[in-house]
Amino acid sequence: MSQVSISEKSAVRVAQEPRHLGVALLVIAFAQLMVVLDTTIVNVALPSIQHALRFNSTDLEWVINGYSLAFGGLLLLGGRAGDLFGRRRMFVAGVLLFAAGSLAGGLATTSWWLIGSRVVQGAGGAIVAPTALSLIADTFKEGAARTRALGIYAGAAGGGGAVGLILGGLITNYFSWRWVLFVNVPIALLLAVAAPRVLAASEGRSGRLDLPGAISVTAGMTLLVYGLSRVATHAWTDALTVQTLGAGAALLVLFLIVELRSKQPLMPLTLFANRNRSGAFALRMVAGSGTFAVLFFLTQIAQNVLGYSPLKAGFAFLPLGIGVVITAQVTSRVIGRIGPRAPIMLGALAIAGGLLWLSQITDHATYVSDMLGPLVILSIGFGLVFFPTTLVAVSGAARHESGLASAVLNVSQQLGGSIGLAVLGTVAANVTKNQLLNIRPTHELISQAVTAGFTTAFGIGTIIALAGFALAALVIRVPAPRPAEVALPEAA
């Protein structure tokens, strides 16, 4: 079916079925925000959780990793399920699964109960994240309205991590760690009730899930993310880390072989034939590595070096969350005139500049002079990257591949964050360890060594961001269509 006929069909559909588009956008944005912020909202509550459920220090990291592993490992399957069985239907199923995991986690009385609940949350998030982006195409007509909707979506995706730290600090400080999880339940239920009333219905298409591909990629992604998460606390040469990464890589190679031979592949490799889309995936990995590093390292500096409480540390990131949302909105209004290449390049440079500034921080830093400025610059950089890469990744994809393109975009950010944090975390730990060799550690020397490790990591992060700038300059070659021409796949 031609693009013209699809667009005409969409226009008739929208005219015959008026919807509250503002509410529809609110539903999609809140769903994306809920999924993204849950990667960080629990961080601030970890000490309370450890005390309440008697976690040992080794198992505590699974409260975070359980969610991340399920989310990262199941994203492709979630996106494909939306394409096959209907995005709105799977969106509702995903938020209900997320609500069930949140409720179970809030009621947990043992450590493994909580970890299992976090896995369920991650599985729900893996369905919601790719279908939410695809639903923008189904609900909003192409043009300025859809472009603005994508800008709000990108803002929610980019600022969710910082918002999670703020909410986690507020809830833990004034209520209980359990409400960090309980708070998702009413939100998810409202989303599930509202979605059928305000979001466009999209029928599934004939076909079947590529189960061999789904099993191999899910297992491979899970092992890869797990192996990378171990690097933050174990050496790269650790036997289990090496075995896990090797097995994950082998399974991903098997996945590629399965996809090449499958008649209905889970991830058609033709999705990467478009150089702009492939570049957007790679650039989202760069942005993801920067986001994870900033949230993780600056949280440690704020609490362990500057002596901030969890609540104060959470609020320290407020400029980052607000800045990403505002910048994404501004970018959505001008990208039709300037195209995606310039904002992405400028954003990568801003990220590099913010990280370079952070690399100069000392253990005597203050918030206003040493953290606020870099956070503002980074928020602009992330906002400039998140929206254009979202637009480039999903524009022009065939309708039956839009959920998959959304999933790969999310996978890219998750993998970029995991890989970046693993590499930078290892660098930081080694620098700190070397500075404390053969000396009697005092509180001041430990603070200096820890800060030196983090600033070295920020310096390497600067190089990664500059590589992203070069990548944007070399790969993103075609200017973006004007807003009236932006055509995400329409629902049939």
Brief characterization of the structure:
The protein has 492 residues and is mostly helical. The protein is built from 19 helices and no strands. 78% of the residues lie in helices and 0% in strands.
Please provide the count of β strands: 0
CATH homologous group name: MFS general substrate transporter like domains
Unreliable sequence segments = 1-18, 480-492
Q: How much β-strand is present in the residues?
A: under 5%
Average pLDDT reading: 80
How helix-rich are the residues, as a percent range? over 70%
Domain unit count: 1
Shape: globular
Rounded to an integer in angstroms, the radius of gyration calculated over CA atoms is 22 Å
**Strand-pairing-aware structural class:** mainly alpha
What letter string, H or E per element, gives the SSE order? HHHHHHHHHHHHHHHHHHH
| CATH domain fold name | Growth Hormone, Chain: A
CATH class: Mainly Alpha
Major β-sheet, in short? none
Examine the secondary-structure arrangement and name the CATH architecture: Up-down Bundle
Number of H/I helices: 19
Distance between the amino and carboxyl termini: 10 Å
